[in-house]
Amino acid sequence: MTRIALIHATPLAIAPINAAFAAAWPEVERMNLLDDSLSADRAAAGALTPSMVRRFGVLARYCVDQGAAGILFTCSAFGPAIEAARSEVAVPVLKPNEPMLIDAIGIATQPGARRRIALLATFAPTIDSLRAEFAALIAARGAAVALATHHVADAMAALDADDGARHDALIAGALDAWDGWRDCDAILLAQFSMARARSAVAAKTPLPVFASPDSAVAAMREAMRPGQSTP
Q1: Residues with Cβ within 8 Å of residue 110, at least 6 apart in sequence
Q2: Checking CA distances to 222, which of 2, 98, 189, 215 falls within 20 to 30 Å?
Q3: Digit-coded pLDDT (tens) for 77-126
């Protein structure tokens, strides 16, 4: 059985990505690895540090040593560290939001599109990381697409306190408080933990709403097909 390692920086990401795998790729064996100090250290430092980058390489090598044939990081604020980890191992290593960004860019570059994407995040450091990731993706494609971002304050704290209803309401309510999404082609939910709010957000907008777990599972399955190159 193929083993896929899922590396988490918060326990809030574990259920959403496992649910996505159970729905779309149930036959794969999932290996969940949690280091919840990563998010705390990232927030405290205010930026990625060389020590954090090294930790991602250590985690990737450990997973391969345990038989992982692919690795998916579910932590959205560590893009450069995940890219560095790719060079440490010889299996596909995916960033959490890259597949979702690629899917949304595809919509925003269709004829007649507004060429603008909205991103909601509940962990503020994610925004800078995803802005850089998004810029690299559109530059590689020669596309002219803008990214509008909004931090949904207090939503992650609500989920940490087991108040899922408030978490979802805050995210959906962001569409009332923030007009930046109205001239966009799609709305993206940055954190894996935000996937639970997708239906609440979709009920408030005619735009397609993307949650990263579904896109990530599809991309990992594609990466594991014979003949595919390692990212």
Answers
A1: none
A2: 189
A3: 899 999 999 999 999 999 999 999 999 999 999 999 999 999 999 999 88
Phi, psi of 69 (to 5 degrees): -95, -10
Mean pLDDT for 205-212 is 96
As a whole number of angstroms, the distance between CA 169 and CA 89 comes to: 40
Strand-pair category, 116-121 with 146-151: parallel
Listed in sequence order, the DSSP H helices in the chain are 14-24, 37-45, 50-65, 79-86, 98-108, 125-141, 155-160, 164-177, 198-202, 212-223
Name the band, by pLDDT with cuts 50, 70 and 90, for residue 69: very high
Show the domains of the chain with their CATH numbers: 3-95+214-223 (3.40.50.1860), 98-212 (3.40.50.1860)
Q: How far apart are CA 79 and CA 113, in angstroms?
A: 27
Task: Tell me which residue of 1, 10, 166, 144 sits closest to 77, measured CA to CA.
Answer: 10
